[in-house]
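User: Reviewer 2 asked us to show a designed sequence for the structure in our supplementary figure. I'm pasting the structure tokens here. Could you produce the per-position amino acids so we can include them in the response letter?
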């Protein structure tokens, strides 16, 4: 199988009270698993079998919409689990903090703009911090799309599909986004992604 469902990097109850065990059970075991299973089914008979997830996302965009939707969501969720950790949040590590100051006007402005991108994504989608042409950018995309198909590399993303927050926050997407930034972001992993992308 080309796509495999990764284990969560922490226990299902480790992100409480900001993201519950019930949310993670549904989100990881049902939603992410469905993208993996459907993606593998749609890959059968194509010449993309065995390629990397990134290559499949880019190659299927605008050519095979059903495969793209599932491959994109698989890529997004692989990283989403790692972009969070218990006792996360706080401020970014030195090198990244400096880059956020230079490109995005400081951490507080980054935080406000990142949350606004998540609130402003109408319907399902994602808000991102990405590297494009050597600069940090805040982006938002609908459905399973991500910065890869817009010539950028995502280094942080937050899922704003209702399945990500409805159990814990009901319709209060802004509260979920604030909790994500203040208490869940795994900045060490964001830095790792930044160093690879830079
Ligand atoms: Fe999701």
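Assistant: Here is a per-position design you can include in the supplement:
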């Amino acid at each position: 199988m080309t796509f495999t469902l990764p284990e969560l990097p922490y226990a299902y109850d480790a992100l409480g009270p900001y993201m519950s065990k019930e949310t993670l059970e549904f989100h990881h075991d049902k939603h992410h698993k469905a993208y993996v299973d459907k993606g593998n089914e749609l890959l059968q008979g194509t010449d993309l079998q065995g390629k990397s997830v990134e290559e499949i996302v880019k190659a299927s965009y605008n050519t095979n919409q059903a495969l793209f939707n599932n491959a994109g969501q698989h890529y997004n969720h692989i990283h989403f689990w790692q972009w969070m950790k218990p006792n996360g949040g706080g401020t970014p590590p030195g090198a990244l903090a400096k880059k956020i100051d230079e490109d995005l006007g400081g951490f507080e402005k980054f935080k406000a703009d990142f949350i606004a991108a998540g609130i402003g994504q109408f319907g399902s989608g994602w808000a991102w911090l990405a590297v494009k042409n050597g600069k940090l950018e805040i982006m938002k995309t609908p459905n399973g799309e991500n910065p890869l198909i817009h010539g950028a590399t995502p280094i942080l993303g937050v899922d704003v599909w209702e399945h990500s927050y409805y159990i814990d926050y009901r319709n209060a997407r802004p509260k979920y986004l604030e909790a994500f930034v203040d208490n869940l972001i795994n900045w060490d992993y964001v830095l790792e992604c930044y160093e690879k992308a830079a």
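For the response letter, you might also mention the following. The pocket of fe (ii) ion is lined by residues 27, 31, 77, 159, 161, 163-164 (CB under 6 Å). Residues 21-43 form the longest helix (23 residues).
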